[in-house]
């Protein structure tokens, strides 16, 4: 069971459909692993349904219904098959990575840290990556600013007295100094979405900044 | 356009089920009359122009027709189901992004051990509670929820737009969310 969930406004923005795609990927992956947030999400979807019902109906074009009825027998576009499951990557994320965790083309950053950037089109200003940190590795402390979301996929880390394990989400608080340490029991793999091209702010952000200048 | 009498939620559910089972065109037209003008209103509220809103509404209703056989009234009411389709069509057609989702019913989802199926609140009860929650929320909190669903605004953008300090927006939002959750969890006070 996850103990650290996405911030509430992030969950609501996901339900409302206004959350940027990289953050939505973090939420969808978390939802695969967190029944409590799935429960919350059904309530937030129902909220959207109630608000839809409350909207004053607007005028449709005069030929709208006819055009629609004429299209009912059009063949439906083929459905993409669900991504195969993976012990580390839940299917929403597996679909973006495009391969299983054992075939990820990791890029070494040094000091036991590797990254893989996820190609997500039209998301200028965000960087989405998998980051793999060797067990027990500690991370140089920096202050930071900006928004970041980190989701643990394997292993875990401890930051600010809190321990984060598979499924847990850590948001960056710009006012806090982070000194995260990967848990000693194995390699730690996280999905990290960073706002801004070269700003890193979450638990592993300082480390990435360190290597990128 | 002829004005329609409001349709009861249970009736809408039954219409979707009928379309799913028998491809009944009359039932589909009834769904169209209820939902299409609301879906279009929703898209217009979110800033789509009339042509785009019209097209995305067509696509939404087409998806309703095609996927009606997967509608499960024990999971969500018809309005909630249509809302999620309209929301996702908007992301796809207007925002031009993909919508990652946890696959409902997939074996890989970690199930909830705390709530046995027979103790989950029924869909109708949940929808009723959501309505209560919307009514009891103080106006300034309800306004924030509206902005989140209908204006694509982040808390920072809401703060800028309303002139309220970000801290105030955040704390009001937290209050609203906590209130909603309490009502959904069964505490109606
Ligand atoms: Zn959660």
Question: Which key phrases capture this entry?
Answer:
heterodimer; A: 213 residues; alpha+beta; B: Rna Polymerase Sigma Factor, Chain: A; Arc Repressor Mutant, subunit A; binds zinc ion
Describe this structure as you would to a colleague.
The complex is a heterodimer of chains A (213) and B (189). Chain A has 213 residues and is α+β, with helices and mostly antiparallel strands. Helix content of chain A is 31%, strand content 21%. Chain A has a domain of 110 residues: Jelly Rolls, CATH 2.60.120.10. Chain A has six helices and nine strands, in the order H-H-H-H-H-E-E-E-E-E-E-E-E-E-H. The radius of gyration of chain A is 20 Å and the shape is elongated. Chain B has 189 residues and is an all-alpha fold. Chain B has two domains: 90 residues, Rna Polymerase Sigma Factor, Chain: A, CATH 1.10.1740; 68 residues, Arc Repressor Mutant, subunit A, CATH 1.10.10. In chain B, 65% of the residues lie in helices and 0% in strands. The termini of chain B are far apart. The interface between A and B is large, with 64 and 78 residues. Bound molecules: zinc ion (ZN). Zinc ion binds next to helix 3 of chain A.
Write the layout of secondary structure elements.
The complex is a heterodimer of chains A (213) and B (189).
Chain A: H1 8-16, H2 21-33, H3 35-54, H4 64-71, H5 91-97, E1 107-110, E2 113-117, E3 126-133, E4 148-154, E5 156-159, E6 162-165, E7 169-171, E8 181-182, E9 188-195, H6 205-212
Antiparallel strand pairs in A: 1-2, 2-3, 3-9, 4-7, 4-9, 5-6, 5-8
Helix pairs in contact in A: 1-3, 2-3
Chain B: H1 9-22, H2 25-45, H3 50-67, H4 78-93, H5 123-136, H6 139-150, H7 155-162, H8 166-184
Bound molecules: zinc ion.
């Amino acid at each position: 069971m996850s103990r650290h969930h996405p911030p509430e406004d992030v969950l609501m923005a996901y339900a409302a459909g206004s959350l940027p795609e990289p953050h939505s990927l973090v939420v969808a992956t978390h939802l695969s692993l967190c029944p409590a947030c799935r429960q919350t999400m059904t309530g937030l979807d129902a909220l959207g349904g109630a608000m839809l019902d409350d909207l004053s109906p607007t005028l449709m074009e005069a030929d709208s219904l006819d055009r629609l009825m004429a299209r009912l027998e059009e063949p439906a576009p083929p459905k993409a098959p669900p991504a195969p499951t993976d012990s580390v990557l839940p299917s929403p994320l597996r679909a973006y990575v495009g391969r299983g965790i054992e075939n990820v083309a990791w890029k070494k950053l040094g000091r036991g840290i590797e990254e893989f950037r996820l190609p997500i089109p039209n998301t200028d200003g965000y960087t989405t990556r998998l980051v793999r940190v060797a067990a027990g590795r500690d991370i140089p402390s920096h202050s930071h600013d900006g928004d970041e979301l980190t989701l643990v996929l394997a292993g875990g880390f401890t930051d600010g007295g809190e321990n984060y394990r598979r499924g847990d989400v850590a948001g960056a608080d710009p006012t806090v100094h982070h000194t995260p340490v990967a848990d000693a029991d194995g390699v730690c793999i996280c999905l990290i979405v960073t706002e801004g091209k070269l700003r890193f702010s979450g638990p592993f952000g300082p480390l990435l900044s360190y290597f990128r200048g | 356009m002829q004005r329609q009498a409001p349709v009861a939620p249970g009736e809408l559910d039954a219409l979707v089920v009928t379309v799913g089972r028998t491809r009944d065109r009359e039932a589909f037209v009834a769904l169209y009359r209820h939902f299409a003008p609301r879906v279009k209103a929703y898209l217009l509220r979110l800033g789509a122009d009339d042509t785009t809103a019209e097209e995305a509404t067509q696509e939404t209703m087409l998806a309703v027709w095609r996927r009606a056989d997967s509608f499960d009234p024990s999971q969500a009411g018809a309005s909630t189901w249509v809302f999620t389709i309209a929301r996702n069509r908007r992301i796809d057609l207007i925002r031009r992004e993909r919508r990652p989702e946890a696959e409902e019913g997939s074996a890989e989802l970690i199930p909830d051990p705390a709530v046995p199926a027979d103790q989950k609140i029924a869909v109708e009860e949940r929808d009723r509670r959501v309505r209560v929650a919307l009514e009891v929320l103080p106006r300034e909190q309800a306004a924030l929820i509206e902005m989140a669903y209908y204006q694509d605004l982040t808390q920072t953008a809401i703060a800028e737009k309303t002139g309220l300090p970000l801290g105030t927006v955040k704390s009001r939002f937290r209050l609203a969310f906590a209130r909603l959750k309490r009502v959904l969890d069964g505490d109606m006070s």
